[in-house]
Structure formats: C-alpha cells, structure tokens
Design a protein that fits this description.
Number of strands: 15
CATH architecture of the largest domain: 3-Layer(aba) Sandwich
Bound molecules: pyridoxal-5'-phosphate
Length: 391
C-alpha cells in the first residue's frame, strides 16, 4: 500500500490543484527537488568538477539503481538527456541498408517515426506499420506474417502517448527474435507507472524519459542496451567518454551501454533522476501500477457517465493515460477551461501519433494522466469540472 499522506506531503503542489499531467511532465517529489537544487548550490560553491567528484559514488550507484528499475545489468544502462536522445542513439546504431525493413506499430510516436522515415529514405530501407487488432493493440499474428530476415528492427511503443493502451511486449519480442530482428521498446509512457523489465520482456533496447511517470527532472533520459544487442549495434555518434584515443590513428570504443553517453551532462539532473528512481523503487512498482490503474479507471468511469463526453482509450489492457473528447468543444479549449477550475490536463494532436489518430478519425484528444499522488476525491473533482465544459 502506498501511504497517500506521505507521498502528498512530498508533493505539496498536489494539494493546490488536481494535477493530471504525469504523462506530460509530472511533479517531482521533494527528494528529487532537494537533490537537484542542492547540487546546483554545491556547484556554485566549489565548481562543477569538484562537486561531481564528491558525488562520484552516488553517480556510479545510479547504474545499479536503474538496472534494478529496468530489469537489466548495470553495464546495460546509459544516461541521456531525453527519451528521444536515447531512442535516436540506439536507432542510429542499428545497421540499416538498402532493402532492409523497419516495422513500427500504428501507435508509433512522431519523435520516432520522423527519424525512421528520414533515415530509411536516405539508405533505401522501407518502413511498414504492423496493423492493430480489433481492440487497438499491436496484432501479433499480423506481425508474424510480415516478418522475414530483411526486418532489422521492430519499434514498439509500450504505452502510446495518446491512449490508455498497453501493448503486449513479450509476444512481439519473441516473434521478432525468430528472424533475428532487434526490438526497441519505447517505454517513455510506461516507466514509472508500470513495471518495465527488459530481461523478462526480452527486448533488446529500451528508451525512457525522466520527467513523466518517473517524476524526475526535465532533460533526463535513460537507455537500456542489452549485451546481445551491443554486438549488433554500430555506434556512430561517439565522443571522448564513449572510447579512448589510444594511438594517433586509432580509437577503442567502450563495449558497454555507456558508449552511447556523451561526456557532458547536467550532474544535478542526473542525481535528481537517480533519486526519482529510488523513490519509485521504495514505493514499489507493482503498488504504483495498482494505484495509477485505479485512478485512471475511476476517471474513465466518471467521464463515461457524462453526456457529450467520449472516452477515446483503446486496447485490452489499460494504464494511466485517459483520453477523451467533448462534443462541440476543441481539446485546447477544454484544457484551458479545466485549468481555470484547477484541473491540469493536456492535449494530444494527430501529428504526434499520425497513423493511429488518422485511422480513428481523430484530430485531437484531451489527455488526463493521474499519478498515485492524486486523491480519488480529486479524480471526482476532475470529472465534475469536465461535466461543466460545454455548458
Ligand atoms: C514523450 C514521449 C516520447 C519522448 O520523450 P522525450 O523525453 O520528450 O524525448 C517518446 N515516446 C512517447 C510514447 C512519448 O509519449
């Protein structure tokens, strides 16, 4: 059981408003804030290099913390400055040539689809979307029928940015591995609200962000590169942290995931990210998933009762993202009206998940994402606020 009073005491702003945007950028708990601000102050006192050396053990421990959080080994973890940076670093290192195929799902995120389509056009590879099944999640049978040895990568979004859906990851990974394709899991909307265990899911690569459900600082991200994948990947964007200049004409690259890190980073944010991971682990990933799922279901149930409001979530298994539309009202208008009533939500537009939104004939949806620190009574308050939109 999560101690609601304790987590709310760590999140003072959770009382001032109904905060339903942990899928956008959550409220960091006090230990995260203290870590970031404390380190910035220390940098101002002794300089960034000395301040970082003082925290060397904690920074090193971060790889073990994230290994535990993500079901990986410490040498399979790399820290970055966003989920997109993690995703790009991994994708850029996947060998891809003319005639190769990349498979994506219909809920692919624009931040992934744009670089895939761009690079595929440059090298003469093709990008194909795996159809969704009747409930909206990736159709694993359809995937099996598409697979052959030219498929080099399957890009799978765990939880899409624009619906409550949870995709079946292990099934996709098992199918993809039969033809030797790598599986890159976008866990940006799952890490911090659902358990994401790279080894159990048997995915090769995982990208995720700090600021969403994990409640870390902005400008932080993490990448998992499983050892097996490291043998296939060809990192290109490397620096003096990724390897060593051993002779005038020769370099030796690291063999672990940190080959994908750059030397420079915000140490304060990194420490804050590690604090956020510890905070989640202390609460328990299963407990978090349970609480978030309960809040989201309560919200969906309330919204479904409202005339003119349509819940737009798809999929069989659902998580903490709740999307809806209000008849005759634009999503941005609804967002702003709710903000006026102290309810923080955001919107998702067709351009972010073009295939899925086009398929469903949607231009935009309102997105509400309640974390475990939201009181059930606040969820009801949000429903009541939505009921007044359009009146
Ligand atoms: C937000 C999001 C991303 C990008 O995360 P950044 O940290 O902004 O780079 C990637 N995939 C999905 C599904 C997202 O919702």
């Amino acid at each position: 059981m999560i101690d609601l009073d304790a987590v709310r005491a760590d999140t003072p702003a959770a009382s001032g408003r109904v905060f339903l945007d942990s899928a956008g950028s959550s409220l960091p708990p006090r230990p995260v804030l203290d870590e970031v601000i404390g380190h910035l102050r220390r940098e101002a006192e002794v300089g960034g290099y000395v301040a970082a050396r003082e925290r060397a053990d904690d920074l090193a421990a971060g790889y073990r913390v994230f290994a535990e959080l993500l079901g990986a080994e410490p040498d399979e973890i790399a820290f970055t400055d966003s989920a997109t940076r993690s995703w790009l670093a991994a994708f850029d290192a996947v060998p891809l040539g003319a005639g190769d195929r990349v498979l994506v799902t219909e809920v692919e995120y624009a931040g992934n689809a744009i670089p895939v389509l761009h690079r595929a056009a440059q090298v003469g590879a093709t990008v194909e979307a795996i159809p969704s099944d009747a409930v909206g999640q990736v159709d694993v049978d359809a995937l099996r029928s598409m697979l052959d040895e030219r498929v080099k990568l399957v890009s799978l979004v765990h939880v899409p940015t624009n619906s409550g859906l949870v995709n079946p990851v292990a099934e996709v990974a098992a199918a993809a591995h039969e033809v030797g394709a790598l599986v890159l899991l976008d866990a940006c909307q799952s890490l911090g609200q659902l358990p994401v265990h790279a080894a159990e899911l048997d995915v090769d690569l995982v990208s995720a962000t700090g600021r969403k459900w994990l409640r870390g600082p902005r400008g932080t991200g993490v990448l998992v590169v499983r050892r097996r994948a490291r043998e296939v990947l060809r990192p290109r964007l490397v620096d003096l942290h990724s390897g060593e200049w051993v002779a005038p004409d020769r370099v030796e690259l690291r063999t672990d995931a940190r080959v994908f890190e750059l030397w420079e980073a915000s140490i304060a944010d990194r420490l804050g990210l590690i604090a956020a991971a510890r905070y989640a682990l202390d609460l328990g990933l299963a407990e978090i998933a349970h609480e978030v799922g309960a809040r989201a279901e309560r919200l969906r149930a309330g919204l479904r009762e409202l005339p003119g409001v349509e819940v737009r979530d798809i999929g069989e298994r659902r998580a903490g993202i709740v999307t809806f539309t209000v008849a005759g009202r634009g999503a941005v208008e609804v967002r702003d009206e709710l903000a006026g009533r102290g309810v923080v939500v955001t919107t998702s537009h067709a351009g972010s998940t073009l295939l899925d939104m086009t398929r469903r004939g949607l231009d935009e949806v309102v997105r509400a994402s309640p974390h475990y620190f939201v009181e059930p009574a606040q969820v009801d308050q949000a429903v009541e606020a939505v009921s007044r939109c359009g009146r």
